[in-house]
Amino acid sequence: MGYIMDLRKVVGSSPLIMAGSCILIFNQAGQLLLQRRTDSNDWGTIGGSLELGESLEEAAARELYEEAGLIAGSFKFITILSGKDMYYKYPHGDEIYNVMAIYEAQNIHGDPKVNDNESHELRYFSLEEPIENLNPFTKHYLRRAGYITKW
What we know:
This protein has helices at residues 2-11, 56-68, 136-144; strands at 16-24, 32-37, 43-44, 46-49, 71-81, 87-89, 95-109, 119-125. The chain is an alpha+beta fold and 151 residues long. The strands form two sheets. Strands 1, 4, 5, 6 and 7 form a five-stranded mixed β-sheet that branches. Its cofactor is Mg(2+).
């Protein structure tokens, strides 16, 4: 997050528009890989913001490797989410309005492992039942992208 960190030095915690990618990784049983985040201690999707000169798909590939140690053979574009309901305030006070491209990773190589300091653990979850301690923003992503409809 070099670019965003540099901006934060200028604007502090004021709201920023932040473009990024969210990556959905499913195992053969159809369960979704989530990370227990270090900033909020809840379960969220893999993803993050763009760096200068990076495409949304390049950011997806980078974040997938950085956060889970995985490499995707390809990415299936799902949707782009934006607007006032994409507002998020981090526990430390930084505010953002996300413009988020949602991708589903295809042909995954490797075994999921915590690969950076952004998560405590990685685990697969079924989307058939509500997930305890799910990040509200992640729930919003999954609902808007059509992955959860029952809860």
